[in-house]
Design brief:
It comes from Labrys monachus. About 45% of the residues lie in helices and about 15% in strands. It contains 8 helices and 7 strands, in the order E-H-E-H-E-H-E-H-E-H-E-H-H-H-E. The protein has helices spanning about 20-30, 40-55, 70-80, 100-130, 150-170, 190-200, 205-215, 225-235; strands spanning about 10, 35-40, 60-65, 85, 135-140, 175-185, 245-250.
Length: about 260
């Protein structure tokens, strides 16, 4: 399927590995020119070279933390007028909410709510003026099915979801869409970190991962490329009637009807 994206420009946040990398690669396969970022230069350069070799598209790596003003300024300097914005950031730590400090709450809100809103604010009017824009936020199934040990993520990502729900309605007439992808358990470093944070005395992270895997309806964890393909589809020129949606990618594990 040709998504009609060849020659479009995209900023894909937190894309040196994991789900962000999956989105970047899927968009590159559609001919989208990319600006990607990460905080580890070696990993970022390796990812950029890998995507260039696989697709032949222009990939600009930017060492930056999207949770900071300086990091966002570097991204926007590299691509001031993107057609596509994929908001993504490493999730905050797991744990008992009783142990979270005010500073941890503010850091979670900065990274997983305010940073995406600031990038949307910086790029939205250009999209409206060109009458094409696709914004995809990678959030979490915890937005709809909160996870007790991910309280920081539950709160910050739900705040972003509420904000974009109102905005998306106002801008859809301009062929600018905003959708959220809610990943379940994907085979990423983040999942292993959560497993380590959730391990009880005598448990290893691998023990926790195996327990979680057995609890998955699909019997497996998702692959980053699977999420990337959904992201690319939502960014396609013929997906303009899909907006303001929270799209589960969890292998069917969510137990609700709606």
């Amino acid at each position: 399927m040709d998504l009609g994206l060849k020659g479009k420009k995209a900023i894909v946040c937190a894309s040196s590995r994991g789900l962000g990398k999956g989105c970047a690669l899927a968009l590159a396969q559609e001919g989208v020119e990319l600006v990607i970022n990460g905080v580890t230069p070696e990993t970022l350069e390796r990812t950029a070279a890998e995507i260039r070799a696989a697709t032949g598209v222009t990939v600009t790596p930017v060492v930056a933390d999207v949770a900071t003003v300086e990091g966002r300024e570097r991204l926007l300097a590299a691509c001031p007028q993107p057609d596509i914005l994929v908001n993504n950031a490493g999730g905050p730590p797991a744990g008992d909410f009783r142990d979270f400090t005010r500073e941890q709450w503010l850091a979670a809100i900065d990274a997983n709510m305010l940073a995406p809103i600031e990038l949307i604010k910086a790029t939205l009017d250009g999209m409206i003026g060109r009458r094409f824009g696709r914004i995809v936020n990678i959030t979490s199934v915890s937005v709809k099915a909160p996870i007790s040990y991910l309280g920081l993520s539950n709160g910050a990502r739900s705040g972003l979801t509420g904000f974009v729900a109102g905005l998306a309605r106002d801008i859809s007439r301009h062929n600018v869409t905003i959708n959220n992808i809610l990943p379940g358990s994907f085979a990423t470093d983040r999942l292993r970190d959560n497993a380590a944070g959730s391990a009880k005395v005598g448990q290893s992270p691998d023990d926790v991962l195996e327990e979680w895997r057995e609890g998955e309806s699909s019997g497996r964890f998702g692959r980053p490329d699977e999420l990337g393909m959904v992201c690319a589809f939502l960014c396609g020129t013929n997906a303009g009637y899909i907006t303001r949606q929270n799209i589960f990618l969890d292998g069917g594990s969510y137990p609700g009807t709606f």
